[in-house]
Amino acid sequence: MIEVEDVTVSLGGRRVLDSLRLSLPERRIGIVGRNGSGKSTLARAIAGLIVPEAGRVTIGGADMARDRRAALRSVGILFQNPDHQIIFPTVEEELAFGLRQLGRDPAGAAEMLVRFGRADWAGRPVAELSQGQRHLVCLMAVLAMRPRVILFDEPFSGLDIPTTRALRALVAGLEETVIQITHDPAAIDGYDRVVWIDAGTVRADGPPAAVLPAYLAEMEAPDAERLA
């Protein structure tokens, strides 16, 4: 169970999340909202990458911001730009890093490459890979750590259609709980739940069929009408 308990976050003097409260037991959850709504900040708070000024996020009772080891065991996060995430020069080094952080056998990196049919990537320089391939490296690195929750923060933005389809198929087959931050309602069609974040609070929350039509209607309205 993921519990977001009255979480407040301010960045640069602006209130980004405002006493946000959510219980998230579902296996597939989408989070939508316009730019600056607070959805990416929420993802970072769930992953323990931000310490809220008030409130907390817990998974299985562990405070994600204050128990770093529990956060690493519980949550993996993939960002929009894989180059903001990859820090080692070769694929196997990148996959082994998280395992070492958790005190696990780094040989699990090679096992993950075999699982995805990429054993030949072990010593390959990450710089030689395409953007879609680097996204796959990030996903394998997260999966190697065996988290209970995987957060995707607009991970497929800017990718071509075949690469996006391939990565979405991989995500669809994951056993872990998935939370996806997205602007694209099609990416979360069929999910168990959608949370619409607006100005740091919950605008709507429920099944996709109950939330997405209203969200789409507002996003497609003329700019003048939306800003009125």
Summarize the structure.
It contains 8 helices and 10 strands.
Question: What tags apply to this protein structure?
Answer:
globular; 8 helices; 228 residues; 6-stranded mixed sheet; Rossmann fold; alpha/beta; 4-stranded antiparallel sheet; 10 strands
User: How many runs of DSSP E, i.e. beta strands?
Assistant: 10
**What is the CATH third-level topology name?**
Rossmann fold
Low-confidence stretches: none
Helicity, in percent? 25-40%
Q: What top-tier CATH class fits best?
A: Alpha Beta
- The domain count comes to 1
N-to-C series of helices and strands? EEEHEEHEHHHEHEEEHH
Portion in strands: 25-35%
As a whole number of angstroms, the C-alpha radius of gyration is 18 Å
What is the tally of helical segments?
Answer: 8
Q: Strands across the major sheet, in which order? A: 6-7-8-3-9-10
